[in-house]
Design a protein that fits this description.
44 residues, single chain, mainly alpha
Length: 44
C-alpha cells in the first residue's frame, strides 16, 4: 500500500498559479539576460 503525500501529488499537477509563476520567472530571467548582454561587453 503506497500512500502519496498530498503535497507531492499537488506538485505534480499543473496548477495555473504555478504555470504563471514559471512564465513570469522565465520572462524575467530572459529580460535580465537580454539587458546584461546589451550593457556588459562580452568577456569570452
Amino acid at each position: 500500500m503506497i500512500q502519496v503525500p498530498h503535497r507531492a501529488a499537488a506538485e505534480q499537477e499543473p496548477s495555473p498559479e504555478k504555470e504563471e509563476k514559471i512564465a513570469i520567472f522565465s520572462r524575467t530571467s530572459f529580460f535580465i539576460v537580454k539587458m546584461s548582454r546589451k550593457h556588459v561587453p562580452p568577456t569570452h
